[in-house]
From TrEMBL:
Protein name, entry field: Large ribosomal subunit protein uL23
GO cellular component: ribosome
Record-annotated membrane-spanning stretches: none
Organism: Paradesertivirga mongoliensis
Family affiliation: Belongs to the universal ribosomal protein uL23 family.
Amino acid sequence: MEILKKPILTEKASALTEKSNRYSFKVDHRANKLQIKSAIEQMYGVSIVAINTMVVSGKSKNRQTKAGLVTGRTPKYKKAIVTMKEGEVIDFYSNI
């Protein structure tokens, strides 16, 4: 099971990082806080103070096509917001 799927790099997540040294990740829905903490500490070599997790529900989407109205949902996912120790940073753009 791959615990960390990808970092969330939105404007809201970037503002959270600048303001309070917190990073957001999209994680596997079966992973718990201890597994997420160990995976992030191994991958980025940082120490973590706290982890908050939440399940983000999918949105309902509608689209008008030639065949008529097509409805569907975006998939739900689990999000982890990680608070780092003061002075530690994660650089997501270093390995591009």
